[in-house]
Amino acid sequence: MDDYIVRINPGSVYLLKFILEGYDNLFITTTLDKATGLVCIKRAPGMKGMLQRILSQIEKQIGLDCFKG
Prior knowledge:
By secondary structure, the chain is an alpha+beta fold. It is built from two helices and four strands, in the order βαββαβ.
């Protein structure tokens, strides 16, 4: 699994986790710093494009600020 680090609105951490974990083990989220909204996303092989599409569709709702991976 590859790691991606995102920074989102701290109040949206639960929403991102709920959405991604609904994809049945394709993505695993770990909160690195709830106060700043720093989250690590692990993705299954071959799911980079899907992760980018999901994040682009919800970026405004979760306040996506930074995506590195």
